[in-house]
Amino acid sequence: MGVVEIGGLKVGPGEPLLVMAGPCVLEAADEMLRLSGEIAAVCRRLGLPYVFKASYTKDNRTSGDSFRGPGPQEGLRLLQRIKDAHGVPVVTDVHHPGETAAVAEVADILQIPAFLCRQTSLLEAAGRTGRAVNVKKGQFLAPADMAHAAAKLRAAGCDRVLATERGSFFGYRDLVVDFRGHDALHRLGLPVVFDATHSVQSPGSAGGATGGTPDLIPLLMRCGLAAGADALFIETHFEPARALSDAGCQLPFARFAALAAQARRYRELYLEVTA
After folding, report:
1. Domain that holds residue 85
2. Residue 134 phi, psi dihedral angles, 5° rounding
3. Pairing mode, strands 192-195 and 161-165
4. DSSP code for 244
5. Going along the chain, which residue ranges are E strands?
6. Cβ neighbours for 159, distance < 8 A, ≥ 6 positions apart
7. Count of domains forming the chain
8. Least packed by Cβ within 10 Å: which of 33, 47, 67, 138?
9. What gap in Å lies between CA 47 and CA 58, rounded to an integer?
């Protein structure tokens, strides 16, 4: 299994826990700059490598009336401001092959949304940028089948591929996480990212929006780290109830520092017992 380097940081077997954290979608610039700075400060204090995450466009909202983000032009400018202000790498979603080149000028990691993880043209375009690519495993996909997404990226010249587990459909409007999938993804030679917030989603359950059970975020986080996740993906907001996307499953920032400290301890213990 390989270690992936991103913006001077390393993620993979034997490495410290990498944290990808931020809001679901970019909102007001002042708030995003403050939130990213406070997350970065927590991670620096704990010695955790940190990547800021946020989407400039959410193209997979439940309702056509939902907020979709500032768009690529304004959103990429804001992501660059965050990078410059806090000296952190950033990861953001790409939905269309035609956007990948512009996104790669700013983002250190291009992220393939779960619903698009089989889209060959998108994977090929992302793979040609020279950036690292994080593929979110589709809720419909067997973990071992992520081999095909990784192969498409590698064929396009990308040798820095990460895989994110974010749960599997369990009937209607429910997700479960089969933590055996971490092992399956590691066997593909991929660092594993565990998304502890989207894993508690209840898709479409909030009357045209996504609901969830955010109180379960710490439990699932601990399970994911015990199963060997190399990175932790957390959506967090100062006030999740007023978040413009995924309000039902984001972690209140007031709880972030304690959760991050716990995550570091779990990673350290995992590395100790599996050495």
Report:
1. 4-273
2. -105, 115
3. parallel
4. S
5. 4-6, 9-11, 18-22, 50-53, 90-93, 109-112, 132-136, 161-165, 168-169, 175-176, 192-195, 201-202, 211-212, 231-237, 251-252
6. none
7. 1
8. 47
9. 31
pTM above 0.70, yes or no: yes
pLDDT digits (tens), the chain, 275 positions: 589 999 899 999 999 999 999 999 999 999 999 999 999 999 999 999 999 999 998 877 566 766 778 899 999 999 999 999 999 999 999 999 999 999 999 999 999 999 999 999 999 999 999 999 999 999 999 999 999 999 999 999 999 999 999 999 888 888 999 999 999 999 999 999 999 999 998 776 455 556 789 999 999 999 999 999 999 999 999 999 999 987 888 999 999 999 999 999 999 999 999 98
DSSP string, 102-125: HHHTT-SEEEE-GGGTT-HHHHHH
Q: How far apart are CA 158 and CA 180, in angstroms?
A: 26
- Ramachandran region, residue 22 (left: φ > 0; alpha: ψ -120 to 50; beta: rest): left
B/e letters for 178-196, b = 16+ CB within 10 Å, e = fewer, are: eeebbebbbebebbbbbbb
> Which CATH number characterizes residue 165's domain?
3.20.20.70
Three-class secondary structure assignment of 142-192: CHHHHHHHHHHHHHCCCCCEEEEECCEECCCCCEECCCHHHHHHHHCCCCE
Instruction: Note whether 109 and 131 are within 8 A (CB).
Output: yes
Distance CA(189)–CA(131), nearest Å, equals: 18
Q: What span, in angstroms and rounded, lies between the C-alpha atoms of 252 and 178?
A: 25
